[in-house]
Amino acid sequence: MPSEFTGKHVTVAGLGVSGVPAATVLHGLGAHVTVVNDGDDERARAQAAQLEALGVTVRLGDGATLPEGTELIVTAPGWKPTKPLFTAAGQAGVPVWGDVELAWRLRGLDGRKAAPWLAVTGTNGKTTTVQMLASILKAAGLRTAAVGNIGVSLLDAVTGEEEYDVLAVELSSYQLHWAPSLRAHSAAVLNLAPDHLDWHGSMEAYAADKGRIYEGNRVACVYNVADKATEDLVRAADVEEGCRAIGFTLGTPGPSQLGVVEGLLVDRAFVEDRQKNAQELAEVSDVNPPAPHNIANALAAAGLARAFGVSAAAVRDGLRAFTPDAHRIAHVADVDGVAYVDDSKATNTHATEASLAAYESIVWIAGGLAKGATFDELVAGAAKRLRGAVLIGADRALIREALARHAPEVPVVDLDRTDTGAMIQAVQEARRLARPGDTVLLAPACASMDMFTNYNQRGDAFAQAVRELGA
């Protein structure tokens, strides 16, 4: 049992998917654990009862007050740095870690070999890239798991009975903010666009937290050639001697890059004489789906895998074996010569821009909660691809106004209803606007909670409405 935690008074901030495992692990390590939580709903009470049965103290409805005697705070990643609890901790000289920081420090528990981390962050594409990476690592015969912000607890991965050769780790900007000592084997920042600025306070602070993923990298910092901000983060990082900057591009790669040549994914980074040679990794058709932004995800995953020494054949086999999660540019059906595609996961403008770029002629279903976003740049860039638009949700007027400014010739159907049945009408209106060869694309550019529980339910409603069209 690590003496670092035995008898230590630790406060866990927040219950949920990170707080409960953190409290459980710390209690098992001999710490005196107190959990504080803002909410006091039925779910929180059930989780509190579970922890109290172990001997953990839980305070519901009070996440602002620092418990007396606290020597360390372990926080849920979503708690803002400006919360009064952290102000009090700073004044008392109490360190604050996230659950990722705790997991990093617990690697190698009980003398086991600590599995290296291949880490991924970015505004969009993190989950898909990490899942692709895990598929590639498995194809190479390695014991691995996709963990972190993907919904699988890192704490479970580093303290559980199963041992891993390497972990594919998705990290959010929130998690990175609270993980000061993280040092990955290799890491990738896929892209950067304004997001969560209410939490971080500014784009500069958001980018800086994303850039933490490169700190101390040992082998490779993988960046997006098309997104200079990601390369800037590499340049600013303090890495180990010999760590390389590895770019990925949808164009022909230069030395120390991965890219695309004549329908092939190729590597000019992890080959001998990279000035003259390239290694074929896979065909573009091996990527599912082969949309441009998803090919970029595949290249980033391949770059991290190659940095870990994985063969080209394993990259190909892993990409072929990969099946994307639901609601990520998923083809639902063809009806009367029109393709219907569910990209409900496109909850911000950056993700939606990539989705719209994947198709030539689109009837776009969009809208929901804008989260402070503006849509002029998105609409201006996609205007030539739009056959029509069907708008739903609380903030649809913002998209309608952007369409009026930048695509006035595009017919727009504005559905003045926010009940969940609106999706059926939206799909019917989209069918009316579409022509054979078009794609009806649900890529809302907005969050879903005005009408649906989450983006999954929104995508399910779209898919069911499409199936009813073809019935």
Describe this structure in words.
This protein has 471 residues and is of the alpha/beta class. It contains 17 helices and 20 strands. The chain has a nine-stranded mixed β-sheet with strand order 7-8-6-9-10-11-12-13-14, with helices on both faces. Strands 15-16-20-17-18-19 form a six-stranded mixed β-sheet, with helices on both faces. Helix 5 packs across helix 12 (312-321) and helix 16 packs across helix 17 (455-469). The longest helix is centred in the middle third of the chain and has 16 residues, at 292-307. It starts with 8 loop residues before the first strand and ends with a helix. The model has no long low-confidence stretch (mean pLDDT 94).
Q: Which of globular, elongated, flat, extended, rod-shaped describes the shape?
A: globular
User: Count of DSSP E strands?
Assistant: 20
Q: Poorly predicted ranges (pLDDT <50, ≥5 residues)? A: none
Helix share bin:
25-40%
Instruction: Give a short account of the largest sheet.
Output: 9 strands, mixed
| Quaternary status | single chain
Mean pLDDT: 94
Distance between the termini: 61 Å
Query: Helical region count?
Result: 17
**For the CA atoms, what is the radius of gyration?**
23 Å
Q: Into which percentage range does the β-strand content fall? A: 15-25%
SS-based structural class? alpha/beta
